[in-house]
Specification:
This protein is an all-alpha fold. It has a domain of 187 residues. Helix content is 74%, strand content 0%. It has 12 helices and no strands. Helix 2 runs parallel beside helix 6, helix 4 runs antiparallel to helix 6 and helix 6 packs across helix 12. The chain is globular, with a radius of gyration of 25 Å. The chain starts with 25 loop residues before the first helix and ends with a helix.
Length: 289
């Protein structure tokens, strides 16, 4: 005769779970946090030492150029690199920075399929895209404006024109950081859009470099033809497009020959940023769905 063991009664354990009753900071705070995190990621802050190597190598390189400019001016009283020339002088390191950092900001989330977690609440899809874009713009601007601040300090101590000379130095610095902002907005808009189209960082980096470099030979060939094409061709490449904007807005004596098409360079640059931003928002309207 077999005995049947009676079933044990279930036990409910009180684990102390309670509803959150604190302040809910909402969508704006979440977007700002995403922007801050993305900006820190651009420079490898809060990440492993390996992630810091390339960003800070570029930072060291652009600051080295600024240090050389300060030393040359202090010894010879000759402006080695002006504020408006500086962003173009370090153009190659900036492009490499974009090619590495832009995929780091967007491709990891696409590849890991974590976008639905971001979009659950309270952050919206446009918030995510714009936070990434603004973080990339900020990173490039800081990369360009930081060394120019060093050049400003060296220039103030090197010049002998008193307060008037110092004020002239400061206004030149403002022009340089303004041009750096234009460069950052145009370059970052293109780079983030291209990076958002690929989930693999290596592929995205190659696509970004290709976008900036492939059109350069086309500009060169069309410029040789002469006539209006020589003045219009630079709008096909983001680098020469930004150079044309600088020539028109800041009235530099050297650079591209714009002819009567100066305003068109500004209009094309603005249209490029608007189109890239619009396409980026459209890209994330369906991403992670």
């Amino acid at each position: 005769m077999s005995s049947v063991e009676p079933a044990r009664a279930g036990v409910i354990h009180d684990l102390g779970y309670q509803r959150y009753t604190g302040p809910r900071l909402g969508r704006r705070y979440a977007t700002l946090s995403l922007y801050t995190h993305s900006l820190r990621t651009a420079f490898g802050l809060g990440r492993s030492g390996k992630a810091k190597v390339f960003p800070w190598l570029v930072v060291g390189l652009v600051f080295a150029v600024a240090i050389v400019a300060v030393v040359v001016r202090s010894q010879t009283n000759v402006v080695f690199i002006s504020y408006l020339q500086y962003p173009d002088t370090v153009g190659v390191p900036v492009l490499l920075f974009l090619a590495v950092v832009a995929p780091e900001l967007v491709c990891r989330d696409l590849r890991a399929h974590v976008l639905p977690l971001y979009f659950s609440r309270p952050i919206a899809r446009p918030d995510y895209a714009l936070a990434k874009l603004v973080a990339m713009v900020s990173a490039v601007w800081l990369l360009l404006a930081g060394p120019q601040l060093l050049i400003l300090l060296g220039g103030i101590f090197a010049q002998t024109g008193g307060w008037r000379g110092g004020w002239h130095e400061f206004t030149d610095f403002l022009g340089g950081v303004a041009y750096s902002g234009i460069t950052a907005v145009v370059y970052a808009s293109v780079a983030v859009l291209v990076a958002s189209l690929a989930s693999r960082r290596a592929l995205a980096a190659a696509a970004i470099v290709g976008t900036f470099l492939v059109t350069a030979p086309v500009v060169g060939v069309l410029s040789i033809v002469g006539g209006s094409l020589r003045e219009l061709a630079p709008v096909l490449n983001p680098v020469t497009l930004v150079g044309g904007v600088k020539r028109y807005l800041f009235h530099t004596k050297v650079g591209l020959d714009l002819g009567i098409y100066g305003p068109m360079y500004v209009a094309v640059a603005l249209a490029l940023v608007i189109v890239c931003t619009t396409l980026l928002l459209a890209r994330y309207r369906k991403a992670g769905a």
